[in-house]
Amino acid sequence: MSALSEIEVIIREDKDALAIAAAARFVVAAEEATINRGSFRIALAGGSTPRTLYELLAGDEWRERVAWNKTHVFWGDERHVPPDHADSNYRMAQEALLARVPVPSENIHRIKAEQTDAPGVASEYEETLRESFQLEAAELPCFDLVLLGMGADGHTASLFPNTDALQASENRLAVAVWVEQFAQHRITLTLQVLSNARCVMFLVAGEDKAETLRTVLDETQDRRLPAGLVRPTAGKLVWLVDKAAASLLQQN
Ligand code: 6PG
């Protein structure tokens, strides 16, 4: 588990500067993965913060710097809605990035959340992961890069505080969770999968996240919020935050 000292916290002026810093690390991760392993396997974050990054990566300045033909795209979580729904994380990534870069369609592994049985959607996504990563029985997928956001309540992906998704059994790769505040099921990668990545990069922006970010990065906190529980066992952990979200962090 990464100690606080191994956690990289990078503060940038605003969301645009944050996206540029994230794009630079995205490109480095892509290059390292394709050179050393022949493919770049990522789990995209949902929500609104990553959209600026996705649009930047699809733009003229950055698009050519990623081997999209060797990239496999997954999601960290998905709302239990069809892919054309306004709340769909797939739809957001498709519009902002995937429709504008040459990722082969067979390399886009969306969570098929249009199916009514949410636990069945999670099981199907687990099979997709096992097949794509060619996993042995108890093996976890090792993403080259997992992008995550953080809610003001400290959730990440769809791992919300005080939900049983945080206690998913060891062999689960993805689970369906009922999220009361949204009166909606969500499908999410489990904590153990997120923490098994070579690199986890959080993107957090906005004043409303400042108190939670201070709590999550405070190692003395015994009750850890879900975002604080994502601790790569062997990989890198990078927090890319804007000044507003970092406003309560002690500047050392
Ligand atoms: C989702 C995300 C979720 C998101 C946070 C932050 O499906 O919504 O997985 O974990 O990253 O809620 O969302 P914002 O970036 O919109 O603040």
Characterise this structure:
It is a single chain. With 252 residues, the protein is an alpha/beta fold. Helix content is 27%, strand content 19%. The protein contains 7 helices and 9 strands, in the order βαβαββααβββαβααβ. It has a 6-stranded parallel beta sheet with strand order 1-9-8-5-2-3, covered by helices on one side. It has a 3-stranded antiparallel beta sheet with strand order 4-7-6. α1 (15-37) crosses α2 (50-57). Bound molecules: 6-phosphogluconic acid. 6-phosphogluconic acid binds next to loops.
Form type: globular
Strand content is: 15-25%
Distance between the termini: 23 Å
Largest sheet: 6 strands, parallel
The rounded Rg comes to 17 Å
Query: Helical element count?
Result: 7
Order of helices and strands: EHEHEEHHEEEHEHHE
Strand order of the largest sheet: 1-9-8-5-2-3
